[in-house]
C-alpha cells in the first residue's frame, strides 16, 4: 500500500483511538463531581471537553516520549504498518473494557500495543527497553503516588475541617469541586491527548514524512479536537463505576480525589512522562476512601480494576502481535 494511503489510515485510527479515549478516560475526570452533584452531567461533560482541549494544545513533551522511547521509528521496517496494527489492538481493548464498564488504562493499551507490534515486526531487539522500562515505571509508580497523595490530602481535610458543620462543609466543597473538575480535565488533556500525537508523529517519521519527533500543529489540533469530541459524548459506564462503585462520595472526598490526581497527572506532564489517568484517578479515590476508613473502599471493585490494569499490557502486546501478523499477510 502506498505510504500516503497508510498514513491517512493511521491518522483515522489514531483519532478514533483519541475519540474513544475521550469518553473512556475523561469520564474519570468528572465522575466525582457528577456523583456529588457539584455539577449536572451535561455541564460537567462540557467543562471537561473544553478543558481537555485547552490542556491538549498546551504541551508536547509526553508526545515526544511516546514517539521515541519505545522504539526508534527511523529504524523499523514497515514502521507505518507497525503503528496501524498497534492502533487496531489498542482500540479493540479500549472498546472491550468500555463495554464492560471497566476503567482500564488507555495508556497501557497504547504502549503495550506499540511494543507488541514492534516485536512482531522486528523482534525484541527493536524495542528500546531502557525507554520502555522508564515508561512502565512511571505507569506503575504514579498510582502508588496518587494513593498516597489522596490519603494525605483527605487526612488534612478531616483534621482542618473536622469541627465544621457538615452542611456548610459540603456546600463549600461542592463549589470547589467545579474548580477541581476543570483542573483535573485540563491535566488529563496535557497528558492523554499527547499519546495520540506521539503515535501519529512516530508514523510520520517511520514513513519518511519528517525526520524529527517534533509534533506538527495539525497533529496537535486534530488530536485535541478528537479527544474533546469524545469527551462531549460522555462515558456513562465508566462514570458509574468510578463515581459510585469505589467509595461513597461526599463533596470533601470528591475534592480531595480530584486535586490529588490532578497534582500527580500534571506533575508527570511536566517531566514529560505518560501516565495512566485512569490508574491515577482511581488510586487517588482509593487513598481518599482509606483515609476516611479502610472499609469505606469497595475493595471488590478495586480488585477487579487492578486486575484489568495488570493484564492490559500483556494482553494488548499479544493483540498487537496478532494484528501485525494479519496486516503482514494481507498487505506485505
TrEMBL record:
Transmembrane segments annotated in the record for this chain: 5-23, 43-67, 79-102, 108-131, 138-161, 217-239, 259-286, 306-331
The UniProt entry's GO biological process terms, in alphabetical order, are: phosphate ion transmembrane transport
Where is the protein found, in the record's own terms? Membrane
Coiled-coil region list:
none
Q: Which Pfam families match?
A: PHO4 (PF01384)
> Chief subcellular site?
membrane
Instruction: Give yes or no: UniProt keyword Zinc-finger.
Output: no
**Keywords, ordered alphabetically:** Membrane, Transmembrane, Transmembrane helix, Transport
Q: What is the membrane topology noted in the UniProt record heading this document?
A: Multi-pass membrane protein
InterPro entries from the UniProt entry: Phos_transporter
GO molecular-function terms, A-Z: phosphate transmembrane transporter activity
GO cellular-component terms in the record?
A: membrane
* PANTHER family referenced in this protein's UniProt entry, alphabetically: PHOSPHATE TRANSPORTER
Name of the protein in its database record? Phosphate transporter
